[in-house]
Amino acid sequence: MRTEDVLAAVATGLWRWDNASGTVSLDGEAARLLGLPAEPVVLPEVAVRSRFHPVDWNEINGIVNLAVAEGTLAEARLRIMDVDGRVMRTVRSRSKPLERWSADGSLDYELIGTIQEIAEPQPGTTAAHTPITGDWRRSREAFLLDAGRALAEARSTAEVLRVAASLSMPGFNPDGLAVFGVAGDRLSVIGHHGHDAGDEGPFTDMLLDTDYPAAEVVRTGRAIYLATPDDYKRRFPATWPLAQRFDRVSWAFLPLIVAGRTMGAWMAAFKQPASFSPDERSVLTTVARMLAQALQRAGVAESERELTTGLQRSMMPQLGPEIPGMRIAARYVPTGGGLQVGGDWYDMIPLPSGRFALVIGDVQGHDVRAAGLMGQLRIAVRAYASEGHRPDAVLSRASRFLAGLCASAESGAEDDSDAQSPRFATCLYVECDPQTGTLEVARAGHPDPAVRMTDGTVLMRPTAGGLPLGIVPDTDYPTTRFTLEPGETMMLCTDGLIETGGHDLDTGWARLRAVLEADTHEVGGGHPAGHLEALADLLVQAVHGPSSHHTTGPLADRREDDIAVVLLCREGAGCGCGTPVAHPVRPVRRTMLTVAQAEPERIAGARRQVRELLHDWADEEQLDSVVLMVSEMVTNVLVHTDGDALLVAEAVGELGERRLRVEVADSSDELPHKRHPGEMASSGRGVLLMEMLADAWGVDPRGEGKSIWFELYEQSKQPDTA
Questions:
Q1: I want to staple 389 with a disulfide (CB 3.0 to 4.6 A). Which of 130, 174, 393, 468 is the partner?
Q2: Calpha distance 457→613 (Å, rounded)
Q3: Burial category of 20 from C-beta neighbours within 10 Å (exposed 0-12, middle 13-18, buried 19 and up)
């Protein structure tokens, strides 16, 4: 078969445009497409030029010049006009510019190429209102680049379908879209566009052996193009009534193939006739491949999100029934990457004694293994606590459990370097008596709790602690006891809440303290911002931005670590959880701290605790005096006795007129006495300092031991009138 016969069979004409001689040679099909008798002919350039729209003629000159410069094909879409200036059809020209040297030595070229009709505007449209088409090849490439980028950014099946519906294909636009999925031997509609709600009903649960184009595409993996309603009725008479009511005239059904497996079918339906030329089929096939990849990615992402949500719900407990006189709120925010699960957790455990325990912890790592270890450790801690063990015993047993668990993992995973690496966990265990507010705290390498007092002052509450769980199997965890007074709120959190955003422990605590203090309403004002749930949201928002406690939010890039936070409030005046006080009274600001003989480094913590307690004291010099006297009193106990020092500091009264009382108790009966140290003496000045700096001081004997105390009255500084 001759080449001319093949081209004629596919309605493609040949032409040769000699720019030097100004003549154009057309075969029969090319002449027909230009509105001339269907026979070979050689015409002057002006006769052919009159058949093209003037705008398209000007544009093709630029396209040809570019093809000559680049050595590529010249592709253009041209509108063919009749003698009345109306568009007859749109054709696509593909030609190769060939350089030719004329007799006078000048360089010229001739175009040799094909011309083929494409489905473009409807016949009868005036040339003045027909849009300019431009270079088909470049517009197609630009469209595919834009489509690929948009589909790659879609994160869910719904987004993929919205992107597919918004694609504006070059030269032809589908009016209706549908994506079919396969489940077993059934075909169902995953999503559609351009149809009314409920239109998908007949196609929702269709057997794959149904005489329907999408079903055949899934069975065979080959695309089906139906250019006219007659084609549809002839090939699929059984299901033609289902498609007839949508008033479409052309359809394309393409397989959605990923990794050699047909996962569904894509339908593009047109209200304008589409001839489905080779280029149009190429565009549709490419879009179908990108659509299949995007749907697979979206399905994997949705499965991961579902798995993440399930893991979080199964691992994060409910806070249980309400506790009379107390309120509890908690939040968990995973990291932004991967499955969004990690090693942070919290728990509330009812105890046999009628008390309850709050637990918060952090297993090293942000991966699936950390989440698995966290789940096992949480169950172990709950089991030990439910047996009635004291806080120190619960953490000791949990440490042995985690060490044994990691040792078993190492021996069973010789080829997995990650599984061989040991893991540890930090943990804070608080046993609470709801009747008295007494808290017993055991800490394993975890950040200390913070307490917001009734007047809004926030203190870090130093507690005794031991090594993180799992490092040394047999480790002791000392217990610290203190009382949560009515109206006070305690915050437990993991280090993700403190250090996210480039903060260290100090600056992170300062950020959280500002949120806790700003949330406090004026005592008795009844402002709802003091509610515990709102406060939990404010703490998370201070790190991640609005709404981050339940979604990734706009600042997901700051999710550097998991976050767990638990708030415990003992209802009372000023906490915001209960009924406001009608006649408010300035609450007592009080803190208590034990400094053991074996922990002299905690003297620095006592100084910091006093400074935080008196953060708004009017006279900075008085505050320095208080810190100096506290340091001297606690040091004397550790140096001159064999027992621990118990520090109690209490501020009473209105701001600017408060009375501060500080007591340091010990178990020794030996009373302090005034000494006269020399210039080089390193001790002996405690009593002298209190005589000089305190407004009052004294020593009170107790049943066992004594209490040394001093009082200081706040002196509001008056403005300098000099």
A1: 393
A2: 7
A3: middle
Per the CB < 8 A criterion, the answer to whether 161 and 256 are in contact is no
Round to the nearest angstrom and report the end-to-end CA distance of the chain: 114
Q: Of all residues in the chain, what percent carry a pLDDT higher than 90? A: 13
Alpha helices in 483-601 (DSSP H): 495-499, 505-518, 532-544
Cβ contact 687:675 at 8 Å: yes
Question: Residue 334: helix, strand or coil by DSSP?
Answer: coil
Using an 8 Å Cβ cutoff, are 283 and 291 in contact? Answer: no
For residues 292 and 286, what is the distance between their CA atoms, to the nearest angstrom? 10
* Triad 96, 97, 99: Cα angle to 5°: 140
Which tokens hold the place of 199? 């239109």
Cross-strand pairs, 659: 652, 713
Mean pLDDT in residue range 344-365: 88
> Which phi and psi (to 5°) does residue 460 adopt?
-75, 130
E strand or H helix that includes residue 659: strand 659-666
3-state secondary structure of 95: strand
Q: What is the 3-state secondary structure (H, E, C) of 15-81?
A: EEEECCCCEEEECHHHHHHCCCCCCCEEEEHHHHHCCECHHHHHHHHHHHHHHHHHCCCEEEEEEEE
Question: Is-contact 408 470, C-beta < 8 A?
Answer: no
How far is 235 from 11, CA to CA, in rounded Å? 23
pLDDT value of residue 529: 39
Segment 406-411 long-range contacts (CB within 8 Å, at least 24 positions apart): 406/373, 406/470
d(CA 56, CA 34): 14
Q: How far is CA 381 from CA 303, 315, 449, in A?
A: 31, 13, 19
CA distances from 491 to 103, 651, 657 (A): 95, 22, 30
**SS3 sequence of 194-244:** CCCCCCCHHHCCEECCCCCHHHHHHHHCCCEEECCHHHHHHHCCCCHHHHH
Characterize the bridge pairing of strands 12-18 and 107-118. antiparallel
Q: Which residues contact 56 (CB under 8 A, 6 or more apart)?
A: 76, 77, 78, 79, 132, 133
The pTM is what? Answer: 0.57
DSSP string for 686-707 = HHHHHHHH-SEEEEEE-SSSEE
The stretches of 268-336 forming alpha helices (DSSP H) are 278-315
Q: Which of 152 and 114 is assigned the larger pLDDT? A: 114
Cα separation, 454 vs 166, whole angstroms? 57
Is the pLDDT at 91 greater than 80, yes or no? yes
The total number of residues written for the chain in this structure: 722
What is the spatial distance between Cα 713 and Cα 693, in angstroms, rounded to a whole number?
Answer: 11
User: If we measure between CA atoms, which residue out of 401, 478, 473 comes closest to residue 443?
Assistant: 478
| Strand pairing category for 465-466 and 438-444 | parallel
Residue 522 three-state SS = coil
pLDDT tens column, 425-462: 999 999 999 988 899 999 999 999 999 988 888 888 88
